Amino acid sequence: MTKIKSVNVYDEINQFFDSSEMVTTIISRDMVEGYCRHSAWQGTKDAILRELWRDLRPLVDYLNSHRQLMAERLSAVKSLEYILVFEWMKGRIPGYNADFQQIARILGVWRDFFFYLSEKKQIDSLDEFAEAVELIAQIAQTGQQPKQGQPLFDRMLNKWISARSKQSAQALAENGGDFEGALAERVEQMLNEIVEFFSQPAYRNDMHRALWLFGGPLGEQHELDDMDFWGTFWDWFVFEYHLLDDDLTPLSHYQRSAPKKWSEFEEQIFRELTGLHYRVFYVESIKNGTWVVACDLLTDERFLLPYPDMEIRDIKRMLFYGRMSSRENALLNYLASIPVSTVLRKRIREELTKLKKLYSFQYPQ
Questions:
Q1: How far apart are CA 157 and CA 146, in angstroms?
Q2: How far apart are CA 174 and CA 20, in angstroms?
Q3: Is 333 helix (H, G, I), strand (E, B) or coil?
Q4: How far apart are CA 186 and CA 190, in angstroms?
Q5: Closest alpha carbon to 90 in 254, 261, 303
Q6: Which of 62, 108, 315, 339 is a plausible cystine mate for 85, CB 3.0–4.6 Å?
Q7: Burial of 156 (0-12, 13-18, 19+ CB in 10 A)
């Protein structure tokens, strides 16, 4: 007779940490196992422990898999991230519907977990997490009604903005309460500031070198109004080039070296920009004339984007490429596009897949 090995909460935790592709360990395996063992010693049954892990796992997954957090320890995670994790859970966590009752239960588990870590001296401060809980609780207690079509996440986000940053609150007012509009406007301003910063004489050697690497011997011969060249050059320079003096990307160097103190709102923008990655995608369908369902050419992942602000006759026959964040309503930088047929799109995917396999063979991780 075959013996079936029972799976308990510790097996689930080990399986998660062994199989997950994490870029950091802000929340470690030992932290989670220690919390569960502490709860077990207090008489909590395994079935309940598995429910606790079910509510704790999305937080662990989110914090350990997002490069843009730029936090090396749990106490350095900003309150906004605890709010963003609830938006990230949509479509990823079965049974999650983002109502207050469900969020309150999940926050209760996170709170107990943080209290345990605090007792064990594994977290320096609970201030950021406490602020996120307080802001969500204020919305629930006041019975604040959403605007028509405004989801709960937007209310939590707007509450955080108004509480944490005078600058972002002013930007919201200037943009009619539109957070995405305020964010996009400030991102554009900051990228323009970066271009101006690295146009100083002190960075002349880096600029000559970057133009040679990017455009070859004729890299510096392009006219200033050649937007196709300069748009792609600055996108590559800011995010990919490494400076001669400190080997940092211009984005990271500017964040550390600019002669000003960044606001909380701007620090969050830097975290978002650091988390941008290159993507090739096409438009699968259009929603209400204002949104598009995009599909990643290489992974088939689908995500929502605002309708591109471009004069395109047949948007579904275009292939877009550029840098963007992994979240829905993604933060975008410079986007370019080319017209392709369905057959050519398929061929491009096949060739890129072959090149990726060849690269993985030559440089195994």
A1: 12
A2: 42
A3: strand
A4: 6
A5: 303
A6: 62
A7: buried
Q: What count of Cα atoms within 13 Å lies in the side-chain half-sphere of residue 126?
A: 15
Q: Tens digits of per-residue pLDDT, 145-194?
A: 434 334 444 454 444 444 443 444 444 444 444 455 556 677 778 888 88
DSSP classification of residue 177 = T
Q: Which residues pair with 142 in a beta bridge?
A: none
Give residue-wise pLDDT tens across range 324-357. 765 444 455 567 788 899 999 999 999 988 988 8
Task: Count the residues in the chain.
Answer: 365
The answer to whether the beta carbons of residues 46 and 78 sit under 8 Å apart is: no
Please report the pLDDT score of residue 146 as a whole number.
37
Extract the runs of DSSP E, i.e. beta strands, from 84-185. Answer: none
At residue 349, what is the residue type?
Answer: R
Q: What are phi and psi of 338, to 5 degrees?
A: -140, 145
160-to-69, 145, 154, 362, 364 alpha-carbon distances in Å: 17, 16, 10, 46, 43
355-364 own/partner pairs: CB under 8 Å, 24+ apart: 356/298
